[in-house]
């Protein structure tokens, strides 16, 4: 395990990088940023990181907070291969394409980047608290613009497809029966009060909780989104993939009943994936990929350890998957782990980088895995000598990028034998 020196990179940017061996041979982890690092072109230091989005070329976008006394919010784009880090926007900063009197205010958590490097994020302009979508840093669409005859309100879930179309879930108009919509560019895809796949759309999810939003798109424009629907009885959550329902709250699944649909995504080759919780808040949780269960509660992790519940998951077009999870059979100091294709690759309390131990993987803010086998997550580390957790941005490479691994194939076969 070695540390690369902190150095000026690219256009005068400063990036903290460390590298080291992992618990599984072939794995590589890189410490990109840690709390307290100087942020380029901002004149402040890193405090925390929100969501991150990664494309297939190692380019990423993320938001967070600095330790500035005011105007702490920021959005950066970077590259885990060239180690560039460029400031896209900051709270209080000027807005390309907007009235010069307006400045960036609060940034929404969800951000997006496509494989061409186009980026999108949503911000609240000041003065006036006007929510706006930005494409490549410039204003694209927002309040007080109109879509489908109504004025745009709040904006959530900013994403971008390969054609450069921003996607978002937005407030739309004052009529409470129709005031939410999913848009692509300026076109409405779904709207509250209409129907999709025979389901009345009662609302469209605006959750931007840990591990990203309930809206994801790929370069081809495939989308997955959660709605609150009604088919004549009680309302229920439904997961919609390209206009078709693929899962719903209350459905029978794996011998249980779907209670929560947690994290969602769509791979570049058009496979929908999601995690689902059965039989109540504390029930078993599974990762479903193109209709197949890849892993979940009860899986044997080796060495007497068993997967308890996934917290955050991600998958790519090759069928590889990663998840942070609680585990059974370990003591309280090591009962959280990072899982790759059903194998533990890092565990709470293990050595991570020089001077640091892995912290509770349940505290990961986001986790992304691309088709090149590169991954990135925001989380925290614990100093070896004790003390408070340190917020970090970590990237890495899986052992066998570019092909469905033997781990994934063996794991899927085992799951099918056990659960089908």
Task: Write out key terms for the chains shown.
single chain; 420 residues; mainly beta; seven-stranded antiparallel beta sheet; 39 strands; 3% helix; globular; disordered N terminus; disordered C terminus
Quick take:
This protein has 420 residues and is mainly β. It contains one helix and 39 strands.
Report how far the terminal alpha carbons are from each other. Answer: 43 Å
Strand content: over 45%
Per DSSP, the total helix count is: 1
Spans where pLDDT lies below 50 across 5 or more residues: 1-23, 402-420
Helical content (DSSP H or I, runs of 4+): under 10%
Q: What summary fits the major beta sheet?
A: 7 strands, antiparallel
Q: What oligomeric arrangement do these chains adopt?
A: single chain
Silhouette: globular
How many β strands by DSSP? 39
Mean pLDDT: 87
Structural class: mainly beta
| Rg over CA atoms | 21 Å
Tell me what you see in this structure.
The chain is 3% helix and 55% strand. It has 420 residues and is mainly beta. The strands form eight sheets. Strands 1, 4, 5, 36, 37, 38 and 39 form a seven-stranded antiparallel β-sheet that branches. Strands 20, 21, 22, 23, 24 and 25 form a six-stranded antiparallel β-sheet that branches. The protein starts with a strand and ends with a helix.
Blueprint of the fold:
Blueprint: E1 2-3, E2 7-9, E3 13-15, E4 18-21, E5 28-34, E6 38-39, E7 44-54, E8 59-66, E9 73-79, E10 85-90, E11 103-113, E12 119-126, E13 130-135, E14 138-142, E15 146-147, E16 150-160, E17 166-172, E18 180-184, E19 187-191, E20 195-196, E21 199-204, E22 215-217, E23 223-230, E24 236-241, E25 244-248, E26 252-253, E27 256-266, E28 272-278, E29 285-289, E30 292-296, E31 300-302, E32 305-315, E33 321-328, E34 336-340, E35 343-347, E36 356-358, E37 366-369, E38 374-383, E39 390-397, H1 406-419
Antiparallel strand pairs: 1-4, 2-3, 4-5, 5-39, 6-7, 7-8, 8-9, 9-10, 11-12, 12-13, 13-14, 15-16, 16-17, 17-18, 18-19, 20-21, 21-23, 22-23, 23-24, 24-25, 26-27, 27-28, 28-29, 29-30, 31-32, 32-33, 33-34, 34-35, 36-38, 37-38, 38-39
């Amino acid at each position: 395990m070695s540390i690369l020196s902190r150095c000026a990179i690219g256009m005068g940017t400063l990036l903290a990088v460390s590298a080291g061996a992992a618990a599984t041979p072939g794995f590589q982890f890189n410490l990109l940023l840690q709390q307290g690092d100087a942020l380029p072109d901002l004149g402040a230091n890193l405090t925390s990181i929100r969501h991150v989005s990664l494309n297939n070329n190692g380019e990423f976008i993320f938001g967070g907070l600095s330790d500035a006394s005011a105007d702490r919010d920021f959005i950066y784009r970077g590259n885990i291969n060239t180690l560039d880090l460029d400031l896209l926007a900051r709270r209080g900063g000027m807005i390309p394409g907007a009235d010069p009197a307006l400045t960036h205010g609060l940034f929404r958590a969800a951000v997006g980047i496509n494989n061409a490097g186009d980026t999108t994020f949503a911000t609240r302009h000041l003065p006036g608290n006007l929510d706006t979508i930005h494409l490549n840093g410039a204003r694209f669409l927002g309040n007080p613009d109109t879509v489908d005859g109504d004025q745009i309100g709040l904006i959530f879930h900013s994403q971008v497809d390969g054609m450069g179309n921003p996607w978002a879930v937005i407030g739309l108009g004052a009529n409470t029966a129709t005031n939410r919509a999913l848009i692509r560019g300026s076109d409405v895809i779904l709207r509250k009060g209409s129907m999709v796949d025979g389901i009345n759309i009662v609302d469209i999810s605006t959750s931007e909780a840990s591990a990203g939003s309930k809206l994801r798109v790929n370069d081809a424009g495939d989308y997955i989104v959660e709605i609150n629907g009604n088919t004549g009885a009680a309302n229920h959550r439904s997961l919609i993939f390209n206009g078709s329902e693929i899962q719903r709250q209350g459905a029978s699944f794996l011998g249980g009943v779907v209670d929560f649909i947690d994290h969602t995504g769509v791979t570049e080759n058009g496979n929908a994936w999601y995690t689902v919780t059965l039989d109540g808040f504390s029930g078993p949780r599974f990762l479903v990929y193109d209709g197949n269960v890849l892993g979940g509660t009860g899986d044997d992790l080796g060495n007497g350890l068993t997967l308890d519940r996934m917290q955050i998951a991600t998958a790519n077009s090759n069928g590889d998957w990663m998840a942070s999870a609680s585990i059974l059979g370990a003591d309280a100091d090591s009962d959280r782990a990072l899982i790759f294709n059903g194998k533990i690759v890092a565990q709470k309390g293990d050595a991570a980088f020089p001077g640091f131990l892995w912290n509770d993987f349940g505290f990961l803010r986001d986790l992304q895995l691309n088709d090149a086998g590169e991954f990135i997550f925001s989380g925290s580390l614990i100093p070896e000598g004790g003390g408070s957790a340190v917020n970090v941005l970590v990237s890495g490479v899986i052992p066998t990028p570019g092909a469905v691994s033997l781990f994934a194939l063996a794991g899927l076969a085992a799951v099918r034998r056990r659960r089908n």
